[in-house]
Amino acid sequence: MKKILQIIFVSLLVIPLHANEIDNYIRSQKSIQQVCSDEVFIRRSFLTLTGRLPQADQVVEFLGSVNPQKRAILIDRILNSEEYVHYMVMRWGDILRIKSEFPSNLWPNAVQAYNRWLYEKISGNTPYNQFVSELLLSKGSNFRAPAVNFYRAFLKRTPENIYKNISLLFLGSRKTLDDGQTCFSQIRYKNTKEWKEEIVYADVRVHPAVSSIKMFDGRGVSLAENEDWRVPFVTWLTAKENKRFAGVMVNRLWFWITGKGIVNEPDNWSENNLPSNPELMNFLINRFIESGYDMKSMIRLILNSKTYQSKMVPDGLYIPQRLPAEVMVDALADLTGISDSYSSRVPEPFTFYPEGTRSVDLGDATVSSSDLELFGRVSRDVSLESQRSNKITSRQLLYLTNSVELEGRIRKSERLNQICTQNKDVESICKAISLMALSRYPTKQEIALFKTYAEKNNLKLRDLATDILWTFINSTEFLYNH
Asked: What CA–CA distances, in Å, run from 217 to 125, 171, 221, 249, 282?
């Protein structure tokens, strides 16, 4: 097993690896013309939008299609899928710090309600400005008005800390340089007789110390008596004139899709960290505002560009990204048919999660596993994108190559059993596993290598299938979205 891993691991280290306006703003015109293959595109798109590998039959259908619009059709199909919604819920849950225990202390029932609210907003493609308005103007019970959990997920519930986090999330600022915190000095919390229920509301009886405050762009926000001061603040924040608001979300989407923001890091906008391509940034901001803050439309625009569809560096522009922790763990579960088990330390709404639960769908950073921790799942303790590290480590490589637990899952895999039942020779088994794990057909070199390996070691097909899958899992091609 170790020999075949060494031989094929080396062979896989080299990875064969309407939106025209976007490409016009990218400098390397020659590189943009180097479009990635269909095999790379379908895998890249599924991982980018759903955090999941495409099914083998989906790969076969896509590769066999001669429709010149098949890439655009595939993008639309994925954007309209349940998997896309669930993956975006996880993305938002990371930066909104959805966590039942310390430091957010939302409690499991509130976490469940909050995630359901996110699901409804994303599945309905709620415009971004409306989404933020509903979030920041929320009030009521943490169970019945789930968006109020935004105001509960703070260890320090001070106006300064609340505004600091709002500035970070929606203005990309790590420094609070204006008086915006005044708009949140009315926020109050009270408990009820229901277990763990908390009401969030604005006490409009609070008298304004000043009649208006000036924001970072020079515009003023007026504060009146007997009024929820969040209202004029949100009106200013989400106004079309405030292009910083649109820019931060556009840049975040670019970061989520490509792994690097036009402003990088995406939550560190400052005079010392300007956009790497101001023309592209302005173009995307204007398109986002014109679309009515349509997040799905912006994602579609980026994915249909040659910039996104280019080959990976150095031949193209796309930067390979190691699979995030949840995606890695779910991919191993999908390939073996054996998933991790999850349980909560707090026995409600349930202690043990249903068998087969995807880590992407956990929705609570308190619930974890040793594999998720190994591959760097975010703690959700802060709202920074940089809290997630997708760097490959020696511990991760040791686990993938030497883990008895992972080897056992592969050897017990019903998926491999089915493949060996349906296929009776080395070439067809290699083809089935390659489509499943790498979203492509195997090369002639790979087939010949596995045939030689099987004959030399007198392997049964089921043992060979174990070695093939384990080899592919340990390849750079598998570990990275390229």
From this structure: 29, 11, 11, 18, 17
Contact between 335 and 57 (Cβ < 8 Å): no
Q: Band of the pLDDT at 12, cuts 50, 70, 90?
A: very low
User: pLDDT tens digits for 57-91?
Assistant: 999 999 999 999 999 999 999 999 999 999 999 99
3-state helix, strand, coil in the chain (%, to 5): 55, 5, 40
429-478: pLDDT as tens digits: 999 999 999 999 999 999 999 999 999 999 999 999 999 999 999 999 99
Identify the residue whose tokens are 């515009």. Answer: 219
DSSP codes of every residue in 293-359: S-HHHHHHHHHTSHHHHBPBTTTSSBPPEEPPHHHHHHHHHHHHS-PPP-B-SS-SS-SBPPTT--G
What's the rounded Cα separation, in Å, for the pair 425 and 430?
Answer: 9
Rounded-to-integer distance, Cα 125 and Cα 292, Å: 11
pLDDT above 90: residue 8: no
Q: Is residue 182 within a helix (H) or strand (E), and if so which, with residue range?
A: none
Extract the tokens encoding 86: 């669930």
Per the listing, tokens 């750079």 go with 476
Euclidean distance between CA atoms 184 and 168, whole angstroms: 15
CB atoms near residue 466 (< 10 Å): 21
> Residue 335: exposed, middle, or buried by beta-carbon count in 10 A (0-12, 13-18, 19+)?
buried
Q: What are phi and psi of 291, to 5 degrees?
A: -75, -5
The pair of three-digit structure tokens given for residue 357, joined into one six-digit string: 């639960």
Q: Do 115 and 89 contact (CB within 8 A), yes or no?
A: yes
Residue closest to 141 by CA, chosen among 176, 106, 174, 172: 106
Tracing tokens 């926000």 back to the chain, one arrives at: 221
Whether the Cβ atoms of residue 94 and residue 388 lie closer than 8 Å to each other: yes
- Are 140 and 114 a contacting pair, CB within 8 Å? no
Give the span between the Cα atoms of 466 and 457, in whole angstroms.
14
Q: From CA 204, how far away is CA 187, in angstroms rounded?
A: 9
- Return the sign of the alpha-carbon dihedral for residues 172, 173, 179, 183: positive
Query: HEC states along 193-260?
Result: CCCCCEEEEECCCCCCCCCEEECCCCCEEECCCCCCCHHHHHHHHCCCCCHHHHHHHHHHHHHHHHCC
Q: Which residues pair with 212 in a beta bridge?
A: 222
The CA distance from 309 to 40, in Å, is 9
Give the Cβ contact number of residue 314 at 10 Å. Answer: 9
Task: Kindly state the DSSP code that residue 271 receives in the 8-state scheme.
Answer: T
Residue closest to 461 by CA, chosen among 412, 428, 414, 413: 428
Q: Which residues contact 185 (CB under 8 A, 6 or more apart)?
A: 159, 206, 229
